[in-house]
Amino acid sequence: NDSLRNLDGLANVSSVTELSIVNNDGMSRITSEATIMWVSTIDSLEIRENDSLEYIEAFNGLTSVWGDFLIVNNNSLSRVGVIGPLSMVRGDFVVEGNDQLESFLGAHPIVEVGGDLILRNNPFHTSDVDFSSLVEIGGSLVVQGNQSLERVDMMNNLSTVGESVVIDDNE
């Protein structure tokens, strides 16, 4: 939908099962003031292929995602701020193919990812990727093809990776 500019009408939603924000090329920001602030648990969250989306800092009350958390192929996305007090994602946590993404602070409070943690093909800058609270990944850890990535603050507390670790082609 090229006409949709924001999600202001959803500000008072307190319960939702799945949230998919997909192909809304007129939307440039997803902010706490304008989106589902009071939802604490959700089955899945997908933010995908929103070509004008530049910034995400939303979901102040979100503590758990029971399925997948996906931020994928948003061509103009440059920054993801802290996303709620999110501490657990039971499925996969994927940030992939966001061509302008320089800073990702959204995962700081996450302690557990039940599936795979995938950070792939994003132009992250230096230390602007923070997973410092992460203790456990049930699946694989994949950090691959991220231009300019010098370090990922996720190793300090990480004690368990259930499957493989792939660190590859980060310039």
Walk me through the structure.
The protein is mainly β and 171 residues long. The chain is built from no helices and 17 strands. The strands form 3 sheets. It has a 7-stranded parallel beta sheet with strand order 1-4-7-10-13-15-17, with no helix packed on it. It is globular and about 40 Å long.
Provide the structure class: mainly beta
Q: What percent of residues adopt helix (DSSP H or I)?
A: under 10%
The residue-averaged pLDDT reads 85
Which radius of gyration do the C-alpha atoms yield?
15 Å
Determine the N-to-C terminus distance.
35 Å
Largest sheet: number of strands, sense, barrel closure: 7 strands, parallel
Q: Order the strands across the largest sheet as they lie in space.
A: 1-4-7-10-13-15-17
Helix run count: 0
The portion of residues forming beta strands comes to 25-35%
Please state the overall shape, judged from the principal axes of the Cα atoms: globular
Order of helices and strands: EEEEEEEEEEEEEEEEE
The number of strands is 17
Stretches with pLDDT under 50, minimum 5 residues: none
Describe the SSE topology:
Elements: E1 18-22, E2 29-31, E3 41-42, E4 44-48, E5 55-57, E6 64-65, E7 69-72, E8 79-80, E9 88-89, E10 93-96, E11 103-104, E12 112-113, E13 117-120, E14 136-137, E15 141-144, E16 160-161, E17 165-168
Parallel strand pairs: 1-4, 2-5, 3-6, 4-7, 5-8, 6-9, 7-10, 8-11, 9-12, 10-13, 12-14, 13-15, 14-16, 15-17
